[in-house]
């Protein structure tokens, strides 16, 4: 907390979907450190409770709710809470799944549907449902969480990589349509970040070394590497940026 000297988000209300651990948690924490009131959420009550107690112990202003992003009633509860707080300035769509590690055309239909239901459709629905609250505040920011594999698919990322490519298009399309409304829409594409989601790669010795070999910086990211970028994108410092994706991957290859 003491390292964050900026208070760029004073008075802002933020929702970070999928934020009780990993990158989403670091984003929520950074927003709160910069002065925002943050609604954190994820599927499991125990994870929500643990995250809220850690953040409030740091003196940060957060509220926690259970929200499975694919459940309409859960999403409504989050936006009702934001409404009670006064509206919404910042919306981050961070939840994602990758139920299948393998090449894309080996993915079966149910896995494909699951990946697109959570990673793309739920992200679209949350953005759509949060938009009226953002409009009521006279503007704000939406950030989607993609991945470097959106640009540079690798075999083990299969359908997940394709879903993350879809978010690049969603970012562009939404940004253009909201550009005159003082609403920015941007995207972040992390490389490998040390979280539960990526631990099979970052913590398995044989795999870890070959993954590291693809990263010129020769280290995995940490959630705080991504949180600072998201905080920048939703701050006044980024007010002339919309429709863009920032890749943060330690120099890993990132071209379509
Ligand atoms: P993580 O450590 O597993 O954290 C994911 C968070 O989202 C948890 O709080 C989890 O809590 C919640 N969550 C999962 N599914 C959810 C759902 N259906 N509805 C609501 N919340 C849900 O993952 P992470 O590595 O931080 O990943 C966050 C984002 O970064 C994802 O979009 C991922 O694709 C992207 N990303 C990660 C990496 C990486 O290397 N880690 C790289 C590129 C992109 P519950 O279990 O309680 O729901």
Automatic annotation (TrEMBL):
Signal peptide: none annotated. Coiled coil: none annotated. It comes from the Eukaryota. InterPro entries: NAD(P)-bd_dom_sf, Sc_DH/Rdtase_CS, SDR_fam. It holds the Pfam family adh_short_C2. One of its GO terms (molecular function) is carbonyl reductase (NADPH) activity. PROSITE patterns: ADH_SHORT (PS00061). The keyword Oxidoreductase applies. Keywords: Oxidoreductase. Belongs to the short-chain dehydrogenases/reductases (SDR) family. This is Dehydrogenase/reductase SDR family member 4. It comes from Ignelater luminosus.
């Amino acid at each position: 907390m003491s390292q964050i000297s900026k208070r760029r988000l004073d008075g802002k209300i933020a929702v970070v979907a999928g934020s009780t651990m990993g990158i989403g948690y670091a984003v929520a924490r950074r927003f709160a450190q910069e002065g925002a009131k943050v609604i954190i959420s994820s599927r499991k009550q125990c994870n929500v409770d643990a995250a809220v107690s850690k953040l409030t112990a740091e003196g940060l202003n957060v509220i926690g709710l259970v929200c499975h992003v694919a459940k309409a009633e859960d999403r409504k509860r989050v936006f009702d809470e934001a409404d009670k707080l006064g509206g919404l300035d910042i919306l981050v769509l961070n939840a994602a799944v990758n139920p299948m590690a393998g090449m894309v055309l080996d993915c079966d239909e149910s896995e494909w549907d699951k990946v697109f239901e959570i990673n793309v459709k739920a992200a679209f629905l949350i953005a759509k449902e949060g938009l009226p609250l953002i409009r009521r505040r006279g503007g704000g920011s939406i950030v989607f969480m993609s991945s470097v594999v959106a640009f540079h698919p690798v075999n083990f990322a299969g359908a997940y990589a394709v879903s993350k490519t879809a978010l690049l298009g969603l970012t562009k399309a939404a940004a253009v349509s909201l550009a005159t409304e003082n609403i920015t829409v941007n995207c972040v594409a992390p490389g490998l970040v040390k979280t539960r989601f990526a631990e099979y790669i970052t913590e398995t010795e044989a795999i870890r070394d070959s993954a590291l070999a693809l990263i010129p910086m020769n280290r995995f990211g940490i959630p705080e590497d991504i949180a600072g970028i998201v905080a920048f994108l939703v701050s006044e410092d980024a007010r002339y940026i919309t429709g863009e994706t920032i890749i943060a991957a330690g120099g890993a290859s990132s071209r379509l």
